[in-house]
Amino acid sequence: MAIYMVYEDALALMKRFTPSESLQKHMMAVETAMRAYARKYGEPEEKWAITAILHDFDYEKAPETHPFKGVEMLREMGYPEDVLEAILGHVDVPEHPRRSLMAKVLFAVDELVGLITAAVYVRPDKSIHSLELSSLKKKFKDKAFAARVDREGIVRGAEELGVDLDEHMAFVLEAMKADAQRLGLG
């Protein structure tokens, strides 16, 4: 891989542009889910991790042009087009359809990790380890809980991946449990 495709460089770029710890943790949670899916599908784990860690890096600096301005910056830095296309596809606009598996996975996990994180924060012990799939499904059905989470996007993401929604939710939940300490969800 070229120098611009080094995980540590992508992480440093994300942190430089994203002062919010909660948004940094979100991108790391998306990274965790992307790494797990990359392993499952036999795809390049580091490339998928880099895509995840950069998918929202421009959000705080330019929310009105997210992710388009960020993708322009990444293109100028020499990031590969498949990474840029995946990042563009996570915003669910017709101009940027999700064609690659990487783009479909990024879209499928983005909102779901937000729902899982919110579900952990309201648990009495604040630990992902005590969160069961049945509880997560109840939170998913409760439209008032984490109301900004795009539930239709979560359903569509699982459909685009060709996986059962419950299996998808369980897979991402288990991936996040395995990385709970780094994600601050332990």
Question: What does this 3D model show about the protein?
Answer:
This is HDIG domain-containing protein. Residues 25-112 form the HD domain. Pfam families: HD (PF01966). InterPro entries: HD_domain, HDIG_dom. It is a single chain. By secondary structure, the chain is an all-alpha fold. It is 65% helix and 0% strand. Helix 3 crosses helix 5, helix 4 (68-77) packs antiparallel against helix 5 and helix 5 (81-89) packs across helix 6. The protein is globular.
- The total of helices stands at 10
The average pLDDT value, as a whole number, equals: 96
- The name of the CATH architecture is Orthogonal Bundle
Quaternary arrangement of the chains shown? single chain
Strand content: under 5%
Radius of gyration: 16 Å
Give the domain tally.
1
The major beta sheet can be summarized as: none
What general form does the structure show? globular
User: Which spans of ≥5 residues are poorly predicted at pLDDT below 50?
Assistant: none
Here the CATH topology equals Hypothetical protein af1432
**Run of helices and strands:** HHHHHHHHHH
Distance between the termini: 33 Å
CATH class division:
Mainly Alpha
Specify the helix fraction band.
55-70%
Helix/strand/pairing category: mainly alpha
Domain HD: 25-112
Pfam families: HD
InterPro entries: HD_domain (IPR006674), HDIG_dom (IPR006675)
Protein name: HDIG domain-containing protein
